[in-house]
Write a structure and sequence with these properties.
The protein is of the alpha+beta class. The strands form 2 sheets. Strands 2, 3, 4, 5, 6, 7 and 9 form a 7-stranded mixed sheet that branches. A two-stranded antiparallel sheet has the order 1-8. It is 54% helix and 16% strand. It folds into 2 domains: 169 residues, Beta-Lactamase (2-Layer Sandwich), CATH 3.30.450; 107 residues, Arc Repressor Mutant, subunit A (Orthogonal Bundle). The protein is built from 13 helices and 9 strands. The protein is globular. Strand 2 and strand 3 form a beta hairpin.
């Protein structure tokens, strides 16, 4: 299973929000479903319509619900990236969603997602399961019951048709310059080098020697194209890779620690908790992901 180029943006990506909004509005007009765009780091750029489905808004109004939504979206995007095609799933609350990657020059530069809908066949989740799931967020059964009835009900045929349309839209975005990538050959080479060597110690001096640049040149390049320092960016990549491995594999946490470049297991645990609010084990247990295709 490959995790390179999943979870950390290869190059700075510019999103034209006004044009994106029109695309999402048109999609919503045709399907009735909520649609959103994420960058390669799983940050939501824009969604339509605004406000979102009331039940989802209620869930996201709680800290635990918001974290579960973010984790569910992230894992779905990872699956879509691996398939390089639309991926339909049930979220942590039991609603149907679909994610599809935005691909430019062979690289994943973002994701589109639609859903927040109810499965018409009730095969994967029904009202009782959604009500039970929402108890985790302190939502009363009567409130969830009413909000559930207000959600859009769709069958798998409609979901598959919408997924195909969205996949075409994702390809259209960079062709019309709605999503643009700022390219730099040296930054791309460094990015690829980091992906291939995350399990090894990576020193600033090693990067300078590998790419024949001075420290100042390296500092400038990282600030320009990655908007952060060298050390912070390497750490970000290691933690994002760790999240992916925790979410998508059953590898022992000690082995994951080694694979993402932390020789000190205890330091990895402390750092992961500091940056995410959860230990690796808590992260794996708290955010189970249910997949349907």
């Amino acid at each position: 299973m490959r995790y390179d180029n999943i979870g950390v943006m290869l190059m700075p990506t510019v999103f034209d929000k006004e044009k994106l909004r029109q695309v999402l509005k048109d999609f919503h007009t045709l399907t009735g479903m909520t649609c959103s765009v994420f960058d390669a780091n799983f940050n939501q750029i824009i969604f339509y319509p605004n406000p979102m489905a009331t039940l989802c808004a209620k869930i996201k109004s709680t800290p635990k619900g918001r974290m579960r939504c973010q984790s569910s979206d992230m894992q779905a995007c990872i699956k879509a990236a691996e398939k390089r095609a639309p991926h339909t799933f049930t979220c942590h609350a039991g609603l149907m969603d679909t994610a599809t990657p935005i691909i430019y020059a062979g690289e994943i530069i973002g994701y589109m997602m639609f859903g927040q809908a109810v499965d018409a066949e009730g095969k994967f989740a029904d009202k009782a399961k959604v009500i039970e799931a929402c108890k985790n967020y302190g939502l009363e059964e009567g409130v969830v019951d009413k909000l559930y009835d207000a959600l859009l009900v769709v069958n798998r045929e409609k979901i598959e048709a919408a997924a195909n349309i969205l996949h075409i839209c994702a390809s259209y975005l960079h062709l019309r310059q709605i999503v643009k990538v700022e390219k730099n050959e040296l930054a791309s080479s460094i990015e690829a080098y980091l992906d291939e060597n995350l399990e090894r110690p990576i020193r600033l001096e090693d990067l300078c020697k590998q790419f024949s640049v001075t420290k100042n040149q390296l500092y400038t390049l990282f600030h320009t194209y990655f908007k952060t320092t060298v050390t912070a960016y390497i750490l970000l990549k290691r933690l994002e890779r760790a999240k992916s491995l925790l979410a998508m594999t059953n590898l022992p946490i000690s082995q994951i620690s080694e694979q993402v470049g932390f020789a000190d297991y205890n330091y990895f645990i402390r750092l992961f908790k500091k940056k995410t609010g959860y230990t690796p084990l808590q992260f794996r247990k708290k955010f189970p992901h249910e997949v349907i295709g």
